[in-house]
Amino acid sequence: MKRVESLLNLNLDLSLPRLLRSCLGQGAFLGKEAVVAASGRAGEMTDFFNSLLVTIRPRYSSGILCLALTMLLVPAMPPFTQAQVIKSGPPSCPGVALTFDLCPVRRGAGYDQALIDYLIEQKIPATFFMSGNWMMRHDEQVKALLQIPFFEVGTHGKVHAHLPLHSADEQKQEILGPVRLLKTKYGHDATLFRPPYGEFNDDTVNVARALGLQFILWNVESGDPDPTLTAMRIEDRLKQLVRKGSVIVMHANGKGRHTHEVVQHLHQHLLPERNLTPMTMSDLLICNGQAAP
Ligand SMILES: [Zn+2]
Questions:
Q1: 54 close to 2: Cβ distance less than 8 angstroms
Q2: Contact status, residue 138 vs residue 110, Cβ threshold 8 Å
Q3: How far is the CA of 273 from the centre of ligand 1 (A)?
Q4: How far is the CA of 215 from the centre of ligand 1 (A)?
Q5: Distance 195 CA to ligand 1 centre (A)
Q6: How many angstroms does the Cα of residue 23 sit away from the middle of ligand 1?
Q7: How far is the CA of 183 from the centre of ligand 1 (A)?
Q8: pTM given for the model
Q9: Domain residue ranges in the chain
Q10: pLDDT tens, 19-52?
């Protein structure tokens, strides 16, 4: 019989319906759809389940395990702070997170100064995911972004690798590079992590969790680096997708030709019309139906 550690080691989004579906499917915990709650809580329960499993017969064990897991996990899972891969905030929260990736660029300034100036002038909370190679070429900009109290800074891999193509150890080095750089050179603890290209596998999630990082994706893709999209097309897309708790992905490395214009439109029209307030990623995750002060 597999030990509970291996079952709990599986990952993917956690949801009550999926958990219950898994239980109804008996033994589905052994499959890839298995779930896991906060690692601390899961760790606490591991010993309990191991002692339980040695005392019960194998043919009953998966059902009993399912029932026990459901009873113990359901009250313990605030879904937006503890699910492993975070794509959005609480749907009751009247806020959205404007997130900007700072992927390395081969040509150009690699920094959308006009966009950043606008965010600062308008005091718009925003979250930036910096790649290590971008940081190494933008020392002044890193310092400038870290100084703004309503900006939050996370990391985005070192060289912007396709993580699933790499071993767990290589992924760890790629993920850790900019985290260490921010800590040693700038004295900043970055706990948010977004995988380059949004690509990940089980190793990526496990490595990020082991490093104590929050794994942040998005649920609204602006498409801003696509040179064929006009500002209006991007705005139309946002109109369709943005709602309470949305996490919008954009770029601040100059790749988004219309990002500045689109953010102005969001700030002046779309968000106020929908009574939505921009928040940093961390504020969005703890938002409980109230806009941040
Ligand atoms: Zn990127």
A1: no
A2: yes
A3: 30
A4: 14
A5: 8
A6: 37
A7: 21
A8: 0.73
A9: 4-77, 85-285
A10: 333 333 332 222 222 333 333 333 333 333 444 3
